[in-house]
Design a protein that fits this description.
By secondary structure, this protein is α/β, with parallel strands linked by helices. The chain folds into three domains: 172 residues, 3-Layer(aba) Sandwich (Rossmann fold), CATH 3.40.50; 137 residues, 3-Layer(aba) Sandwich (Rossmann fold); 133 residues, Globin-like, CATH 1.10.490. The protein contains 21 helices and 14 strands. Strand 4, helix 6 and strand 5 form a beta-alpha-beta unit. It is elongated and about 100 Å long.
Amino acid sequence: MDINNQQETLERPFIAYDGDERYIFVSYAHADRELIFPEITKFHDEGYPVWYDQGLTAGQEWDEEIEEALLGASLLIVFISKNSMASTNVVDEIKLALEEKIDVVPIYLEKTKLAKGLKLRLSNKHAIFKYNMPEKEYLYDCFKAFNKAEIPQIEFDEVLEESDDVDEVKTGDDSDFNPKDVPHSYRGNEPYIYVSYAHQDWDSVFPDIKCFNEMGYNVCYDEGLSAGFEWGDIIADKIMNSSLVVVFVSKNSMASKQVQNEIRLAVSENIEVFQIHIEETELPSGLKLRLANMHSISKYLISQKYYRAECRKAFENALHNYGENDIIERMSEATMKIQENALAEAYRREISEGRIPDEFFQRRDYIFKMKPAYVKTARDTLTALNSCDFDVVDISDDGIAVESFSDMQLDYMARCIHDLWCEDKINEGWTYGSEKNTEKLTTPYLVSWEQMPREVQQYDLDQMRDVFDIVKFADLKIVNRGSDDSGKKEDSSLKRFNIFRKRR
């Protein structure tokens, strides 16, 4: 062994695997060695067998040994960098693995243009972008890929000489990372939620996914899709079989083509999309209209208690078949029919009085064109009813029909209607202005309930009073599904719109 090989042996963080278990082959540029050794040490410390070319000793044929080690591997991990893409050896290793149908996991150390001939061949591989991922998510993606490839976790008994080099490759604060801390993606046949998010937001999204699981809901997200395996068809299948798509809206997620495509697929398949805004975010062109009638909530503006309640309500409706979508459809159709009947009655009255209502058909067509607005109104009305523990069910269902609301309940639900309207306007980009301006997107009504003119408050109160006529027309009824404690409820709208006033 010459001096150089001896020096490399002393610097290696652990002995390259040489055994009968399934193992990982690591492809990398030697110029990146100081970056690579700490990473593969993390894999080794978790018990995964790793082979890298520091296992070669002097006198061995390089090409022959590399090829033998690669062909015997169950998974190839390639650390992508400008150095590795300039390396003929690394490119050849990737091409050989692909030809031999060995799974390949690209791990990007930096933003890098792939070498000629690799872009198309690696395009359908789910890569790991280490350079812009949280450490724990990066590690979990790696371990997930290893488990998918059935790489065993074993105990190693080799002992390396202790040196400063060995100390440098310890994992530090993240050495205690445990994949078990991350919730598993649901893979069963029961109704489930699909979560769409930007990987850069992992630190914000992960606690919520864990919370949803602890609340008893089945949650599916791309944790279940290992790096190195086909992406498009698997994700599409998960979305199309979900009962609800939850999108964590942020600047990162709205800049992600993957997240945008997931939303578009859900909308095209008529799957309800529940938006959770984790920061103030402008929706990209083409998604505003698609999501206009979808339920959204601004997590960053409301209390944790209110946030959990809104999530639970959305999940219950989607997963446990309370039939919210059917109820909303029937309520909106009933509203349109009531409006159409009122218009026809006015038409007959004008005819009897010798007047010709020339605009009748235009006004009727306008009612039909306004259906999305009626759907939104029905959805908001149902949300307001739910806030006071009321539910809308088919007239044949069990439960005693509620015939009236108390003044306190009516006031609370009208506040909720205003709450929802303001939230929608803010999500659409509207701000407070002394006058309404559709070009500048300003409105004088983006204020707290107390600051609203009485005639505008009356509009929201009438919306809740009219719900009895609507549900009756639709062969529905309102029932009380819980204790009547609405008078004791915390008035969240005041707190929320104090915040909104500061933001205008």
